[in-house]
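To fix ideas, we quote verbatim a fold written out as tokens:
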Amino acid sequence: MTRILVLLALLLPGAALAQAPATAIPEPMRGNWTDGDCARPAAVLHVTPRAAVRLPAEGAGRLLRFAAIARHEDWVLGTADGAAAPRLLLRMRGDALETVEPEAKTRDDALPGPAALQLWRRCPQWPPALVAQHGEGIAFLGMLERVEAACGEGMGAAGCLAALYRAADISGDGLLSAAELARLFRGAAWIAAVEEPADERPALQGLTAAAALLLARGVVESLDYDGDGRLSLAELAQDRGGLPESGGTAEGHPLPLIGLTEALGALRAVVSGAAAP
């Protein structure tokens, strides 16, 4: 249930997200890079305006989403959120990209410090196996940045939700299918798997394609008020796009709800029993 609530929170933002940093990674540094030959890289790097994700050919990847981006001498310095505030230095070296991930103890005025320098070469495409493994997640990362730009400080929940809805609507028909929601869930799971250290990754990192589709169908069924098998923006925003005005009435008297509580408890027991193996 916790996993479902976390995923739904991505679909139904109840509050504005943090505003984007004032600066961004320069255009020449963005895109796809490889460590070694394009066809057989030891690792690949994808750089967006506000993030960088390193994906080795084998092992776990590492995503840094920058809360702050600044110039440091001839480097661009990106600093991510979190207690450790991990940093990444980037600079162009001819047609190549150099990066350094400074040690946590290195002060900003001593950067880049003793950490090793990594050289990346531009590769428009990665090997098919890596594209198949990470392409959907990288597409989600770009989508997430665009949605966050519409969900900054001062933006209403309705506008934020509409931006997410448009980004998820792959078919462009104005309705979200279970497949489109499942893609959203798989992308969120990919972000969770590469953004946090292995011992801190949330449960949704293990979300499989089958589980994502099952969750998506559950979301559609729970919010599909007109029963057409897909979600409109109005259905998704029902009671979530903004706080309603007072819809009550001055007439009447409060009724005791103890009976409702007991009925819900009995229903929960029935559902739990039906779900038990």
About this structure: Confidence is low (pLDDT under 50) at residues 1-9, 11-18, 199-203. Strands lie at 31-35, 43-48, 51-56, 62-72, 75-80, 87-93, 96-100, 117-122. Residues 20 and 149 are 6 Å apart (CA to CA). The chain is about 35% helix and 20% strand.
